[in-house]
Amino acid sequence: MNSSRPTAEQLAAAAGTSIPDLLAPGLDVLFCGINPGLYSGATGYHFARPGNRFWPALHAGGFTPRRFHPSEQAALLGLGIGITNVVNRATARADELTPGELRAGGVRLRTTVTRYRPRWLAVVGITAYRTAFGHPKATFGRQPGGIGATRVWVLPNPSGLNAHWTPVTLGEAFAEFHEAVYSE
């Protein structure tokens, strides 16, 4: 586990890079971020920025037995969990993405889901979901329809910039989703 923080130069160099998806066939859940931040681009780990609340919410929601460090992301596959992004281009902020990039990412994501067939796709970020999938009035929670047999759920964006959701309310949203996934 590399615990060193990226330098300013490494962060700047990460702009426009991509990181590999964490995928396997037949997962229970494929979590989908909006796009990698510069910190993730520099480290190669999803949701890697220290202020990102994905890992605490994943644990608080019951998906992991303890809070994982981003460098432990490969262990998620053994729990039936994967990670991808709508757009795999690292930026300082998600609002740097164009609507066209998000729509193209939605097409790519449908292809990925069709190929790997997770039981659930969980998109973390409602605005990105609305644009990528062409559902401008979508709300949080389970979405109507799906992608083939894969059901779709929208969760709040766990970025520290999303101040509307506290760590507690994020954990509750992830727990509600966990209940839907494992209550079948």
From TrEMBL:
The keyword Hydrolase applies. Residues 20-182 form the Uracil-DNA glycosylase-like domain. Coiled coil: none annotated. Keywords: DNA damage, DNA repair, Glycosidase, Hydrolase. GO terms for molecular function: hydrolase activity, acting on glycosyl bonds. SUPFAM superfamilies: Uracil-DNA glycosylase-like. It comes from the Bacteria. InterPro entries: MUG/TDG, Uracil-DNA_glycosylase-like, Uracil-DNA_glycosylase-like_sf. The keyword DNA damage applies. It is an enzyme of class 3 (hydrolase). Its EC number is 3.2.2.-. Pfam families: UDG (PF03167). SMART domains: UDG, UreE_C. PANTHER family: G/T AND G/U MISMATCH-SPECIFIC DNA GLYCOSYLASE, G_T MISMATCH-SPECIFIC THYMINE DNA GLYCOSYLASE. This is TDG/mug DNA glycosylase family protein. It comes from Amycolatopsis viridis.
